[in-house]
Amino acid sequence: MSTEHAAPALSTRDFIDLEERYGAHNYHPLDLVIERGEGCWVHDVEGRKYLDCLSAYSAVNQGHCHPRILETLREQAAKVTLTSRAFRNDQLPHLYKALRELSGLSRALPMNSGAEACETAIKLARKWGYTVKGIPEDKAEVIVFANNFHGRTISLISFSTVRSYRQGFGPFTPGFTVVPYDDVEAVRRAITPNTCAILMEPIQAEAGVLIPRDGYLKQVAELCKQHRVLFMVDEIQTGLGRTGKTFAFQHEDVRPDVIVVGKALSGGFYPVSAVMADDEVMGVLRPGEHGSTYGGNPLGCAVARTALDVLRDERLVERSAEMGTSFLAMLKTLKNRHIVEVRGRGLMIGVALDISARPACEALMKEGVLCKETHDSVIRLTPPLIVTQAELDWAFERIKKVIEAL
Fold first, then answer.
1. What does the entry give for GO biological process (predicted)?
2. Annotated catalytic, 245?
3. In this structure, how many other beta carbons lie within 10 angstroms of the beta carbon of residue 255?
4. What pLDDT is stored for residue 402 in this prediction?
5. Using an 8 Å Cβ cutoff, are 202 and 233 in contact?
6. Could you say which DSSP state residue 39 is in?
7. For the range 362-366, what are the long-range contacts, defined as Cβ-Cβ under 8 Å and sequence gap of 24 or more?
8. CB atoms within 10 A of CB 118
9. When comparing pLDDT for 255 and 2, which is higher?
10. pTM greater than the 0.85 cutoff
11. Beta strands 348-353; 369-370: pairing state
12. What confidence score (pLDDT) does residue 146 get?
């Protein structure tokens, strides 16, 4: 008879201790360890079940482990996963076509992470500025906005206004002008003959779900037209249905010159991002000037195509608008002296407090609802777009209990 015994299962505390001992301390996650997920729900290593109201920062708009996307992943992984762009593959042209139909812009450039895509957009804007607009070499300027979040590369943190993103990481990349968000006159004053682009989030998610006043995007877009400046929108978190439209900029009558997408582009299965633009902008790139080994790989392209099909076939954009209206109305009934504002669009909602939101998020975790504080004092609520009314009702009762006890 064998005397061997199976190793005991690791507890939540065991996993946390291992992570703290061997991992970089660059995150401050809630103390649960997720083992599996399905739809809007995740389970931890000790069998507890939670409603996910963060959606991996809107990367799993289609829900966890969506069966159609999973099937595509398996099928493509058994064929070919990576060819590099030294060769062509049979999946990339289909993704190009899907992105063309989605955005109305002529061309796309696939990358992997959202940060890579934002860096790509900035490179495109600068090259366009020099070769098309005629800006003197190395003088191009990009206007960005206070409280922005576009990623964590050196160039992107160079124009962040959040101290913790920048402290200890200088020297920083020049060429960026930071102006207040939702202030058209500040944008007007910042534009110079060397301005090649304005890069903005239609809603500032990381800053606490900050929604500009109606007409703001249209006024910024008009300024861009007047001064021959590219209007570039970062839709990495706000795009692909999150706000009740395919893109958040569609809440106003504008057409960006450049659209950046990521996160939900792959339904959470694989890092896929893309930059979309018309010929005048995308045409400035020549072979060898920009690229990525994994960008446009057949596995990522196949997954992204199916993720977009799911958004369309399951009418998740419309569902986001409907469920978001319902959820926001419920949340606006919350009563507590610490609530500053409840704001949102579609299923991107923030409950702003005048105290730290961390204790509330920790209390909600114990009640079976997962969310995360953003900008310290805002509870961000962004469940998958497949969420049902019954699930939102269930979540609201627990949110109400926690908020009332603040």
1. L-proline biosynthetic process
2. no
3. 13
4. 98
5. yes
6. B
7. 362/30, 363/402, 363/405, 364/398, 364/399, 364/402, 365/30, 365/32, 365/50
8. 26
9. 255
10. yes
11. unpaired
12. 98
At 86-118, the pLDDT tens digits run 999 999 999 999 999 999 999 999 999 999 999
Where does residue 311 rank: exposed (0-12), middle (13-18), buried (19+ CB within 10 A)?
Answer: buried
Instruction: Give me the CATH topology for the region 68-313.
Output: Aspartate Aminotransferase; domain 2 (3.40.640)
Residue 190 DSSP class? H
Tell how far CA 73 is from the center of its chain.
21
Give residue 5's pLDDT band: very low, low, confident or very high (50, 70, 90): low
- pLDDT value of residue 4: 57
Q: Does the annotation mark 400 as catalytic?
A: no
Query: Do the bridges between strand 34-38 and strand 41-44 make them parallel or antiparallel, or are there none, so unpaired?
Result: antiparallel
Give the number of residues written for the chain: 406
Model pLDDT for residues 252-270, shown as the tens digit of each residue: 989 999 999 999 999 999 9
Q: Classify strands 230-234 and 107-111 as parallel, antiparallel or unpaired.
A: unpaired
pLDDT at 44 over 90: yes
Per the CB < 8 A criterion, the answer to whether 320 and 347 are in contact is yes
CATH number of 12-62+316-404: 3.40.50.300, 3.40.47.10, 3.30.300.20, 3.90.1150.10? 3.90.1150.10
Closest CA to 303 of 261, 259, 260, 271: 271
Catalytic: which of 127, 133, 245, 263?
Answer: 263
Amino acid occupying residue 191: I
pLDDT at 8: 77
Which one from 133, 234, 327, 372 is the annotated catalytic residue?
234
For residues 372 and 376, what is the distance between their CA atoms, to the nearest angstrom? Answer: 9
- pLDDT number for residue 1: 46
Are 197 and 142 within 8 A, CB to CB? yes
Would residue 149 show up in a list of annotated catalytic residues for this protein? Answer: yes
